[in-house]
Amino acid sequence: MLEVRDLETAYGASQVLFGMSFEVGAGEVVSLMGRNGMGKTTTIRSIMGLVPTRAGSIVFEGEEMRGHASYKIGQLGLGLVPEGRQVFPNLSVRENLVATAANRAGNAAPWTLERVFELFPGLAQRATNMGSQLSGGEQQMLAIGRALMTNPKLLILDEATEGLAPLIRAEIWNCLSNLKAEGQSILVIDKSVDALTRIGDRHYIVERGRVVWQGDSAELRASEDIQHTYLGV
After folding, report:
1. Which segments within the chain are labelled E, that is strand?
2. In angstroms, what CA-CA distances link 33 with 74, 195, 208?
3. Which residues of 120-149 are buried (b: 16+ CB within 10 A; e: fewer)?
4. Please, which pLDDT band fits residue 106 given cuts at 50, 70 and 90?
5. Is residue 201 a contact partner of residue 146, using CB atoms and an 8 Å limit?
6. What does the alpha-carbon distance between residue 66 and residue 8 come to, in Å, rounded to a whole number?
């Protein structure tokens, strides 16, 4: 579904990605892992057209996306839950969700307000509250719901549970597990090895702007030395 090959990205004279390569298949949950500052978020921003790339290829369902405007990338079927959530603070929960609603792929059972509220009952209770009035966990749920309302073929989450309370983290992981069961393709950045290996199919570890390890969940759980070398603090 998504193929990233030899991607290079820089901010001015400071290069961040040095040949980043990975792929996500239809229906898969794939993670990008690694310590802070290693290029994971820059990879996501590159895929979504939010930063210019210097070299490489980003192919989604056979179409080269490198150089596309962000809105065109979204229209192709990529839905982003950005780092920091970035909900619209002066719109209500309901308005945040309606603002992004689209079903360009013509899904027979598209995401609707009712489906999002069923997935996150707490949001239904806060439907008329402004985005700025929500807790961090509620904002993350809203950001996920907002992305789902675009009916994405590929859902991308940057720091899926960072800074959230344990109960909220568990709810987010349960949500992602349910989405996987429905066949949703997901690319996720997070630091929780345990949670990612429970729901993930394959994992890529990023170090200094390139992939240094890849494997499935069983391989990652068994590779304590890899975890210590590239993921330990």
Report:
1. 2-11, 14-24, 29-33, 53-60, 63-64, 78-81, 154-157, 185-189, 202-207, 210-216
2. 23, 12, 12
3. bebbeebeeebbeebeebbbbbbbbbbbbb
4. confident
5. no
6. 11
Mean pLDDT of 84-105: 93
| Averaged pLDDT for residues 27-35 | 96
Decide: 77 and 105 in contact? Cβ < 8 Å. yes
Residue 108 is predicted with a pLDDT of 83
CATH assignment at residue 198: 3.40.50.300
Backbone φ, ψ for residue 216 (5° rounding): -90, 180
Instruction: Please state at what angle helix 166-181 crosses helix 136-148, rounded to 10 degrees.
Output: 10
Give the integer Cα–Cα distance in Å for 109 and 124.
Answer: 20
Instruction: Note down the domain range covering 124.
Output: 90-150
- Range list of β-strands (E), 27-98: 29-33, 53-60, 63-64, 78-81
Residues 168 and 135 in one domain: no
CB atoms under 10 Å from CB of 167, counted, come to 8
Q: Name beta bridge partners: 4.
A: 22, 58
**To 10 degrees, the CA torsion angle through 131, 179, 171, 232?**
-100
141 in the same domain as 159: no
> Does residue 101 sit in helix, strand or coil?
coil
Residue 208 lies in a domain: yes
pLDDT at 232: 81
Q: Is 85 among the domain residues?
A: no
Q: Given pLDDT bands bounded at 50, 70 and 90, which one contains residue 14?
A: very high
* 3-class secondary structure, 233: coil
